[in-house]
């Protein structure tokens, strides 16, 4: 029977920051980094992108996979045990908590005194024809991350979605693009009224309401158009754009926790107690995108991973005193 003092589930910036802090505090954590968990390689979302230019400490930028390899190396250097398996089942109803990996579901569970959930999230996609070809070659799900790259400079761009993220991303992109189209499937924006007003007031932005996207087109290397359809008139046309940004929501990786007595918001994100990484179950902590639907950045994930480790360390030391 395997027992871990602290188990970290996940392998993005939140998980590795938590691991580094715990390992340096001489609490040897065990990390289950996942084996293509939720379709993403160990290392998380940053392994799906090229250069990261907004993570402090890298003035010339750093490749996303390289950054995650280095975080992993740092976790291991201080004594984190990393297991390349996906946690597929948990039971947090009593202590020690129980966990199963996808290969040991019929066997005795792994037990643990405390857990840090850092399973992240993934951007929803539309699965348009051409999407796979031009993903990260003009199509992105993060304007803040990718908007500043040269291929988008002074070019027409499009954002799909009608929520706060879509509005925020469209406004952000007006700094770089010659024009930004906001493609909204309904005849109104779901976004907050302040955001909707900002979008309406922006001269570089045009909202195409009641419009759906049909196909991403390009020259085989880079995106150069999006086929759209006006659902009222049924008119289909190609919108020439060099950049296409999806802002249609994210899915937090919380499926395996859904039967636990954790607090979730209406879209499935884990709620932590404000100002902490604690959840409603003592000994279970959450960090990174799995508990953050607003900021969703590597640096904010790393920051919350640090909080989770410090909260967890306090929990473990108080337990050993009592
Ligand atoms: P994630 O990075 O989401 O990683 C969690 C990982 O844990 C999963 O991917 C998986 O490998 C593993 N896992 C999940 N479930 C399990 C399980 N059950 N068992 C074991 N392992 C599991 N942010 C920036 O700051 N700058 C950027 O330039 C930037 N560019 C981006 C570009 C793209 C294309 C994308 C998609 C995101 C980008 N981001 C960027 C956002 C950033 O990647 C995320 O905010 C950050 O990675 C979230 O970190 P996380 O630790 O919460 O987990
Ligand atoms: P969201 O509010 O769920 O909005 C998603 C948008 O994408 C909706 O307009 C939705 O259309 C559209 N959409 C979904 N699937 C689609 C599809 N298949 N095709 C076309 N459009 C599709 O998500 P979000 O904007 O990421 O916001 C998430 C949460 O974070 C919200 O609570 C938001 O307020 C908050 N947030 C706040 C800020 C801020 O305050 N600065 C910034 C970002 C996010 P429908 O409207 O038709 O469903």
TrEMBL record:
Its EC number is 1.8.1.9. It comes from Babjeviella inositovora NRRL Y-12698. One of its GO terms (cellular component) is cytoplasm. The keyword Oxidoreductase applies. InterPro entries: FAD/NAD-bd_sf, FAD/NAD-binding_dom, Ferredoxin-NADP_redctase_2, Pyr_nucl-diS_OxRdtase_2_AS, Thioredox_Rdtase. Pfam families: Pyr_redox_2. Its cofactor is FAD. One of its GO terms (biological process) is removal of superoxide radicals. This is Thioredoxin reductase.
């Amino acid at each position: 029977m395997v027992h871990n003092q602290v188990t970290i589930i996940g392998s993005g910036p939140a998980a590795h920051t938590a691991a580094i802090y715990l390992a340096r505090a001489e609490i040897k954590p065990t990390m289950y980094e996942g084996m293509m968990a939720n379709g993403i390689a160990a290392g998380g979302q940053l392994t799906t992108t090229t250069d990261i230019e907004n993570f402090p400490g890298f003035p010339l930028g750093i490749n996303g996979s390289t950054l995650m390899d280095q975080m992993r190396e740092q976790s291991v250097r201080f004594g984190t045990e990393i297991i390349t398996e996906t946690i597929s089942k948990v039971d947090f109803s009593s202590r020690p908590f129980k966990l199963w990996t996808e290969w040991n579901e019929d066997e005795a569970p792994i037990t643990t005194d405390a857990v840090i959930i850092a399973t992240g999230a993934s951007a929803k996609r539309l699965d348009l024809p051409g999407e796979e070809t031009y993903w990260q070659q003009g199509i992105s799900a993060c304007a803040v991350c990718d908007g500043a790259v040269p291929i988008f400079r002074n070019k027409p761009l499009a954002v799909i979605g009608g929520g706060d993220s879509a509005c925020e991303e469209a406004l952000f992109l007006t700094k770089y693009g010659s024009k930004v189209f906001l493609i909204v499937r309904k005849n109104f924006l779901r976004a907050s009224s302040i955001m909707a007003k900002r979008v309406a007031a922006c001269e570089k932005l045009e909202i195409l309401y009641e419009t759906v996207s049909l196909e991403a087109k390009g020259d085989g290397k880079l995106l150069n158009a999006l086929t759209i359809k006006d659902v009222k008139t049924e008119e289909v046309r190609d919108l020439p754009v060099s950049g296409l940004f999806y802002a249609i929501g994210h899915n937090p990786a919380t499926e395996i926790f859904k039967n636990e007595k954790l607090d979730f918001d209406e879209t499935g994100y884990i709620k932590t107690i404000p100002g902490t990484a604690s959840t409603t179950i003592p000994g279970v902590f959450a960090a990174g995108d799995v508990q953050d639907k607003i900021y969703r950045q590597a640096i904010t994930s790393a920051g919350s991973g640090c909080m989770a480790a410090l909260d967890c360390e306090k929990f473990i030391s108080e337990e050993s005193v009592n």
